[in-house]
Design a protein that fits this description.
It is built from 6 helices and 6 strands; from the N terminus they run αββααββββααα. The longest helix is centred in the middle third of the chain and has 14 residues. The chain has 2 domains: 147 residues, Thiol Ester Dehydrase, Chain A (Roll), CATH 3.10.129; 34 residues, no CATH class. It is globular. The protein is an alpha+beta fold. It has a 6-stranded antiparallel beta sheet with strand order 1-2-4-5-6-3, covered by helices on one side. The protein binds Palmitoyl-CoA (PKZ). Palmitoyl-CoA binds next to helix 2, strand 3, strand 6, helix 4 and helix 5. This is Acyl-coenzyme A thioesterase THEM4. InterPro entries: HotDog_dom_sf (IPR029069), THEM4/THEM5_acyl-CoA_thioest (IPR052365), Thioestr_dom (IPR006683). It is found in: Cell projection, Ruffle membrane; Cytoplasm; Membrane. Its EC number is 3.1.2.2. It catalyses: tetradecanoyl-CoA + H2O = tetradecanoate + CoA + H(+); (9Z)-octadecenoyl-CoA + H2O = (9Z)-octadecenoate + CoA + H(+); decanoyl-CoA + H2O = decanoate + CoA + H(+); hexadecanoyl-CoA + H2O = hexadecanoate + CoA + H(+).
Amino acid sequence: MEPSLARCGWRATARVRSAPVSNVPNPGAASGPAPSPPSGPGPLTPPADAAAPVRHPDAPAPGEPLGPHYEHCFGCGEAQPHGLRLRARAGEGVSITAEFTVGPDHQGAPGLAHGGVLATALDETLGSLNWLLRVVAVTGRLQTEFVRPVPVGTVLHLDARVTAVHRRKIYCTATGRLGGPEGPVAVRADALFVEVKVDHFIDNGRQEEIRAAMADPDQFRRVRAFEVNP
Ligand SMILES: CCCCCCCCCCCCCCCC(=O)SCCNC(=O)CCNC(=O)[C@H](O)C(C)(C)COP(=O)(O)OP(=O)(O)OC[C@H]1O[C@@H](n2cnc3c(N)ncnc32)[C@H](O)[C@@H]1OP(=O)(O)O
């Protein structure tokens, strides 16, 4: 062990204490057989009659940067000093690539990205896919897998694609790799987005920010245009 860590009282041999499951008190548990694990397709599996995603004819061309969807967005906004400032580009079909540089503001453990920040990077990349479908949608479910630790200073290379669409539901998947588009996989996510009207934000957002966003004619016109999407 590093002498400096030993001085801090860290013990490399420390283990989480555990007890046999049968000894753990659980007064609320019902008696009888344990419930069986869920079977069948989960909520992130598209139903059999789901359709393949269709790239909108007005979607940005492959390679074109998407730009932030909102300047105060924690994922992509320029006005968030500690945000991720994730940069996304349109890919082929209904796919996106993006980069996120992990900074000191994004740590969980010393020198490592916080898992919630990595989930945000995945969520933001997946959310950007809706710009290619030209719909407004929000995350309903996000299932993340953390495969490798991500050190501060790493450029996380993300790619995401829509796998299926069913009514208002958009099924999608994303991967984040260390150091380059072919680097080792560090994080993965599967998600379900649900299409909403702009009123979702107007009705639910704090009025101060909504008023400011509506006063920005470019932002408002662009988002409203998505609602008349064919
Ligand atoms: C001036 C303004 C400018 C605005 C400019 C905006 C710019 C554009 C910003 C985009 C931003 C992106 C940023 C990154 C992405 C986020 O991080 S988004 C933020 C995090 N997500 C949220 O806050 C969402 C919170 N949840 C909700 O608001 C509601 O639960 C939802 C998701 C809208 C769904 O509610 P709902 O519309 O009542 O949906 P409902 O009719 O019940 O369900 C529709 C279908 O979806 C299914 N469904 C719904 N929820 C779920 C779920 N959680 N799990 C599984 N299935 C579900 C239902 O089963 C149903 O399926 P079908 O019956 O069609 O088979």
